[in-house]
Amino acid sequence: MLAAKSKMIFSPEYQQIIAATPHLRYRSSLLKTVLFLILIVAALMSIAYWAKLNP
User: Where are the beta strands (DSSP E) in the chain?
Assistant: First the structure.
């Protein structure tokens, strides 16, 4: 790996930290999830509307 951050992630020290703290997991916020779902629904609705106008 070329980047310094990737060297850290794949280092043995970092792997030991991950093994020592299995209870810590990244979780996205509820607000971000809701906004993403609204975006997906809006995109699907616009595609359906466009498909209805252009048979």
Answer: none
Question: Where do the H-state alpha helices sit in 1-55?
Answer: 4-9, 12-20, 30-53
Structural domain harbouring 30: 4-53
The Cα 20–Cα 28 span in angstroms is 22
* 3 to 22, 26, 54: CA distances (angstroms): 25, 22, 48
| pTM for the full predicted model | 0.54
What count of other Cβ atoms lies within 10 Å of the Cβ of residue 12? 7
Distance CA 33, CA 30 (A): 5
Structural domains in the chain (count)? 1
At residue 23, what are phi and psi to the nearest 5 degrees? -80, -15
For 23-40, what is the mean pLDDT?
A: 93
